[in-house]
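Before relying on records like the one below, remember that each one covers exactly one chain. Contacts with other chains, cofactors or solvent are not represented anywhere in the record.
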Amino acid sequence: MNISDFIFPIACLGGLGLIFGVVLGFASKKFAVPVDEKVPLIREVLPGVNCGACGYAGCDAYAQAITNGAAAMNACPVGGEKTAAGIGRIMGVEVHAAAAKKAFVKCVGTCDVAKRSGVYYGNLDCKDAAVLMGGGPKACRYGCMGFGTCISVCQYDAIQQKDGVVFIDEDKCTACGMCVSICPKGVIELRPVADKVRVYCNSKDKLKDTKEVCSIGCLGCGVCAKVCDANAITLDNNLPQVDPDECTFCGACMSKCPVKIIRAAYPGKIYPVDAIADDDIMSGHSTEDELYEKYSPEDF
């Protein structure tokens, strides 16, 4: 066999490789997208969860948006104050974390108060169950189904399931928003830690329809809004919305709510309204600080 039979193919392949290499090298320089040197620095400061809570697809996209001036520098709830301050140092400005938030489950429809429309057989996944006729096994089409799909996406072990509903451990919650985005019923939302009172219901139904499916569901009666002297409560789709900036924690809404679904929200703990003495909160004569001092989680 002639040696040229080997040399010629090798030379052709080598020549093609050289040509392609030159072309690719030229193209990489010609069409290169400039990258701000601050992007990788910001990316290192970010927690790397890629949860999307900042409003962007992930930490890389958020870092790029910051350098482009399209995103707030304190929009990462997972990183909090430390991350905000780190981004500020890189960008040359002083940055503080946004108001702290935690995930909140707008449903306390446990098995003893919420009726069921049937028995569910199938994959124990909220998204799968929600597509069934009626929206799942619970008679309330707005309530938590309790299958725990949110638990499966929580990277911080901050969600627990008990008696047909899920609960948030605020000490572990980072407000990443993964549970919010995956809940098919929209039962979970991020709420300010500074909330004084919260509405523990997600139902948009009116009085009769609500009573038929849950004994403690919000009736949409609007009494809470009528008795609120601070005008901090409005009704939206038969459900009270409390403005935390306007709420004075007078206790009138909790006192008048016929199903006691509006309850006091204390930092990290939720206190059942019926566990607090009427003279302390229902009359509105005690301040928030006084209640904090008098009552502790161990009391309940």
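The longest strand covers residues 101-105.
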